[in-house]
Amino acid sequence: MAWQKLCPLDEIPALGARVVEHAEGAIAVFRTAGDSVFALADACPHKGGPLSQGIVHGEGETARVTCPLHNWNIALASGSACAPDEGCSRRYATRIDAGVVWLEL
């Protein structure tokens, strides 16, 4: 796996996401209100809904995105659905260096 420069942090809306197209499918890169960044496959483990269009809430390890189709909550740090739901979306490592977001692919 290799780190790829994605964009300046400011190009991802706070409490929102940016979608990156990749050979394995779309990747949603999320930004919390406190500027934490997480990346997941842009498909809810329930019915494949676009997580990038969901609502981001929480911070750090408690950050979540709510799927816009059926309101499943997905933990951004792990990609796991929050109980009582079950399932997982693939997680990608991210980092911020000098205000630039990097994604490990």
SSE topology string: EEEEEEEEEE
State the oligomer. Answer: single chain
Domain count: 1
Mean pLDDT: 96
- Radius of gyration (Å): 12 Å
What can you see in these coordinates?
The chain is mainly β. The protein has a single domain (3-104), classed as Rieske Iron-sulfur Protein (3-layer Sandwich), CATH 2.102.10.10. The protein is built from no helices and ten strands. Strands 2-3-4-8 form a four-stranded antiparallel beta sheet, with no helix packed on it. A three-stranded antiparallel beta sheet has the order 1-10-9, with no helix packed on it. The protein has a three-stranded antiparallel beta sheet with strand order 5-6-7, with no helix packed on it. Strand 2 and strand 3 form a beta hairpin. The model has no long low-confidence stretch (mean pLDDT 96).
Topology:
Blueprint: E1 3-8, E2 16-20, E3 27-31, E4 37-41, E5 55-57, E6 64-66, E7 73-75, E8 91-92, E9 94-97, E10 100-104
Antiparallel strand pairs: 1-10, 2-3, 3-4, 4-8, 5-6, 6-7, 9-10
Please name the defining characteristics of this protein.
single chain, Rieske Iron-sulfur Protein, four-stranded antiparallel sheet, 10 strands, 105 residues, 39% strand, mainly beta, three-stranded antiparallel sheet, globular
